[in-house]
Amino acid sequence: IYVHTFPLSPGMEVDEGPITAGDGIKTFVDEVEHTVRQARVAAHSHVKGLGLDPVTREALPNAGGLVGQTLARTAAGVFVDLVKMKNMAGRALLLAGPPGTGKTAIALAIAQELGDKVPFCPIVASEVYSSEVKKTEILMENFRRAIGLRVKEKKEVYEGEVTELTPVETSNPLGGY
Asked: Signal sequence: where (predicted)?
């Protein structure tokens, strides 16, 4: 059982009557349940695939969590088939278009059609064009994330007790600036 007390402002009233400056309200919580990790609902969590007809491999009007964009989805299906036949080695796919036209949704659907072994790292243009970090560094970080590369640093750690510090004064190599 958890008890939380917080002060009230003078003159505030509660059901029992007026409250004075030193009083507070106690809240009793009988049971605190542990939080369970839940799946995040993202902007494209409804996308389950390209929504293609299994026989003709053409896009259905409303399937796989996608509506419309039948020509783009059919073309993406051709791309998925080429990747599965291993005919896309060393090549890439560029999805271009105005904002809100479904580029990320189709890319996510392609990744889901290809399976779990194909990495999918969505990237937003505002991340790339940030003034804080170089563009190449952002792209390299996403490539590392996609291929699962982890950069490890080797560090030496000295363990013990500092018994004495001796300051040493040297001349400034910059000439006093």
From this structure: none
